[in-house]
């Protein structure tokens, strides 16, 4: 946790860690890592800071890609979006942007903000708003903390800029999603701009360091701290479509080795939402469900294919998501599973053992 | 043409004239006229002005409803949209709004701006950007004149505000249309904000007066100047659906009286686009095609029904639309009819006679 900057040497570890925290979503880290490596070569290392390191009158800019990862895999940003958005923000709000923050640490959305920070000459906050990846605009810690979305901004690779002042976060999601689809299925978004005072208690701190640490553990062939194995097996069915601005579907794994004869079905909305075995929920949002290959690296939803050898793992979510308000924002009911009562994955597995 | 203000006594004539100029679209005038009558009762008459009457450093605010008229028929504005939009404009652009202008004089979009002007305490410009109604954002005289869209704004009845800085008018249409659908199918829009200097030569002047004049002629039982009868008959088929933010479809009329034995098929995208008889084009955009009932009042697309007695009339469009650039922006090809060569309706009919 002693990281004070992100250098070229950290990119692969960060990407690997973000992959696992992405729970299938947040965008494949391949292109984001390439982009970030280039930006660090061009502009040098990015300072990794805490909220207390920032001037109190400046704005933290939470940034990420919105859209379907199935689209984002092929449709890359132009590289000028972050500059455009920063300029619009500073003109609109009359305050300087003093730090970049990942909206979600999961997937490429945990990696690309390093590139944006490098390009903008700004530090990166060692924090995000999810501690994982979630598919929808309202599913952020700021919303759990009761902070309204404020000004939402989007910029696409053509240079089109859209801004929204929605009456609430749900309307923010509707408007941004429709615009993301109109922009071609993927765009850069900023929202919940905050001063350090507003950010305290409303963000999840230390998650950039955590992602690098997970990546280092993967590289060292060590297990991921806190991860629970759900099933080791192979992909026997992938149902995946891009619909309404999301990647939706399900993947079925058939157990191999000690898990032979077992089937695990995971339902997906950009991220892995619920894992079912014999009709029983074995893990569910907001807990993390990831599929990792034999090297320990995560396989994002958009790259799942028949026959792949993967292990399904689950990890406890940040405690914030287990509060009543956290579950309201990103629990099973928020994803269309009103009948699933959330049980922490540690307890589900303990009950099984 | 000597109108200097719009009073309560003018609302019905304005609505009747806008109905005919709406060519089936622009929104049914019924609710807009009610809203306008209420606003004029509350705030008094609205001054009708020319560009030269306005201060040179102020902004003209072109305003209208965007969406499918089939939705707008049931989904009414809240009445606070114009105030919200004006506030955002003045904050963003740092210039005062000095006049309201109809984006399109056709349908309710020619009537409601009177209410907005009354509510805002501003004059109404005796002009619009179409001289009729068209379904898409780029189909405005400012675009023909080469003026870029600038800042586009939308506000819905919930109070959500969206703004766009698109790279061109076509992107403006894509982004606004998607947002209109997300906002429930209908919303208030503003775009192409202009100073008087920018407006000169880029708008169609005198169209509010013209609409009132047409309404007076209808009330007096006189014919509409310049109107050509295409067919007198009844509706024998209506194919109408709300798709992608538009009302689309076709209506077929069967001739009665002297026109017995003839069939006219009119294809629709919010507005009446093309009238075919025996596979031959008898009138086509940008010329105006309207259906009027026995009282001379227009029947908008969303109210067409089997068995209705109507007369299909056509009117020449503003000369602006007959220029090469005008036809590029709103000629047959812009509506997906690349094989129809535009012929002015006077010539089509003359060739027939």
Q: What can you see in these coordinates?
A:
2 copies of one chain form a homodimer. Chain A has 353 residues and is of the alpha+beta class. Chain A has 2 domains: 5-216, CV3147-like domain (CV3147-like fold), CATH 3.40.1610; 224-352, CV3147-like (Beta Barrel), CATH 2.40.390. In chain A, 29% of the residues lie in helices and 28% in strands. Chain A has 11 helices and 17 strands. In chain A, strands 15-14-13-12-11-17-16 form a 7-stranded antiparallel β-sheet. A 5-stranded mixed β-sheet of chain A has the order 4-3-9-7-8. A 3-stranded mixed β-sheet of chain A has the order 1-2-5. In chain A, α1 (11-21) runs antiparallel to α2 and α2 packs parallel to α5. The mean pLDDT of chain A is 95. The A-B interface holds A 88, 92, 158-167, 171, 174-175, 177-179, 181-183 and B 88, 92, 158-167, 171, 174-175, 177-179, 181-183.
Please provide a brief summary of the model:
The structure is a homodimer of 353-residue chains. With 353 residues, chain A is an alpha+beta fold.
Walk me through the topology.
2 copies of one chain form a homodimer.
Chain A: E1 5-6, H1 11-21, H2 29-43, E2 46-49, E3 59-67, H3 69-72, H4 81-93, E4 97-102, H5 112-120, E5 124-125, E6 127-128, H6 141-144, E7 152-155, E8 161-165, H7 169-182, E9 186-190, H8 196-199, E10 204-205, H9 207-219, E11 228-243, E12 246-255, E13 263-269, E14 271-277, E15 280-284, E16 288-292, E17 309-315, H10 324-330, H11 345-352
Helix pairs in contact in A: 1-2, 1-9, 2-5
Q: What does the oligomeric state look like here?
A: homodimer
- What integer is the average pLDDT of chain A? 95
Straight-line N-to-C gap of chain A: 33 Å
Q: Nearest-angstrom radius of gyration of chain A?
A: 19 Å
Strand-residue fraction of chain A? 25-35%
Instruction: Say how many strands of chain A there are.
Output: 17
Low-confidence stretches of chain A: none
- Largest β sheet strand count, sense and barrel closure of chain A: 7 strands, antiparallel
One letter per element, helices H and strands E, the order of chain A comes to EHHEEHHEHEEHEEHEHEHEEEEEEEHH
Largest interchain contact: A-B, 21 and 21 residues
Q: Supply the number of helical segments of chain A.
A: 11
CATH topology of the largest domain in chain A: CV3147-like fold
- Which class best fits the helix and strand makeup of chain A? alpha+beta
Domains of chain A (count): 2
CATH-defined architecture of the largest domain in chain A: 3-Layer(aba) Sandwich
Q: Give the neighbour order of strands across the main sheet of chain A.
A: 15-14-13-12-11-17-16
